[in-house]
Design goal:
single chain, mainly beta, Immunoglobulin-like, 4 domains, seven-stranded mixed beta sheet, five-stranded antiparallel beta sheet, 4 helices, 36% strand, elongated
């Protein structure tokens, strides 16, 4: 009988420990915010409260015996309501992550809080997969992108046109049919326990890029396209992409298969307001001219900025050998007017 009683006592203790751990609640907070922790309700009037951070005292009060006292790093930014036992900690830091427990009227409560610091979700961006998604594709996938590694659990929502937000995954597949062809825009939203952000509406309108070069004498030519630092993908001479702020500010590179005498150009060279590649290209041109005993005539050189971002930011003036290059909206080259909006109106 003694062995049996000892066995049941051990079982009861294990059950109590299991029940205690099951009452742990995870609380997410953003650095700088105020964290509020509430004890479980008690039937009698509260006459003592003790909050602990891990195994250390955080706040303590016993009626008529111990005045309200705060400890350690929580001094000066903590408030304990002695009537309800509710604890508030201001200006939370990542170092405040941990387990908080409370004792009310000399009874340790089973409810404990595990706090986790998280960052606000980033500004999401919508990308299109595959890169060569166009009006002839059977389907395309939109991805709601952003670095959420420090944001904790994140929920994703999508909106089609002017419809309602619907919770979904990171990606949304679009089947190219009559219904989706009538939808003008798509939007995505990220949400975690402390914040939410959404993209501007992404237009499904397509715009074209062309890989041009005099390849008439080079036999069969294959064309490849690459977006930023992605992989080269084989396609045709022309490519359609979604006409939105993201694609208007990204760098699309083109490539033809060797050997071809006339190499196509790289366009655009200014991405996300970073004109480093553009100025490096100008410097290489200047160096090439110097090496071949040629002189660039700055007064006869014109600069045209082709910017399709919704919010236009003109780069600083272009300077070559101390002289500034005149920036114009259009210029005439070999009988053809080239304008900053790539329109044909100046040629008609």
């Amino acid at each position: 009988m003694e062995t049996s009683a000892g066995f049941w006592l051990l079982a009861v203790l294990l059950l109590a420990a299991t029940s205690f751990s099951q009452d742990q609640t995870v609380k997410y907070f953003k650095v700088g915010d105020t964290l509020q922790l509430s004890p479980q309700p008690v039937s009698e009037q509260i006459y003592s409260v003790v909050w602990k951070y891990g195994k250390n005292l955080l706040a303590e009060w016993v009626k008529d015996q111990i005045p309200l006292t705060y400890y350690s790093k929580f001094i000066g930014r903590t408030t304990l309501n002695t009537s309800t036992g509710v604890l508030e900690i201001r200006d939370m830091t990542a170092a405040d992550t941990g387990v908080y427990s409370v004792e009310i009227n000399n009874q340790v409560q089973s409810q404990v809080y595990k706090t986790v610091a998280v960052e606000a979700v980033p500004q999401p961006e919508v990308s299109v997969m595959p890169l060569l998604c166009n009006s002839t594709s059977e389907s395309c996938t939109l991805s709601c992108d952003g670095d959420v590694s420090a944001a904790g659990p994140v929920e994703y929502f999508w909106k089609i046109g002017d419809g309602e937000w619907k919770q979904s995954g990171t990606n949304m597949e679009i089947i190219n049919n009559e219904e989706t062809q009538r939808v003008p825009t798509f939007s995505c939203r990220m949400k975690n326990r402390v914040s939410e952000r959404e993209t501007a509406s992404v237009s499904r309108e397509l715009r074209g890029l062309s890989c041009d070069g005099d390849a008439d004498q080079n036999g069969p030519v294959e064309y490849f396209w690459k977006k930023d630092d992605g992989e080269w993908e084989q396609s045709g001479k022309k490519m359609e992409i979604l006409n939105n702020e993201e694609t208007a500010c990204e760098n699309f590179l083109l490539q033809d298969e060797e050997p071809v005498d006339s190499r196509p150009s790289l366009d655009p060279l200014i991405t996300n307001d970073d004109d480093t590649a553009y100025r490096d290209e100008i410097q290489r041109l200047s160096d090439w001219c110097n090496y071949n005993n040629l002189t660039l005539n700055t007064k006869k050189t014109k600069e045209v900025v082709m910017d399709f971002c919704r919010t236009r930011t003109d780069p600083p003036p272009l300077s070559m050998k101390g002289d500034y290059v005149e920036r114009v909206s259009s210029f005439k080259f070999l009988g053809t007017h080239i304008s900053e909006d790539r329109s044909w109106s100046t040629n008609t």
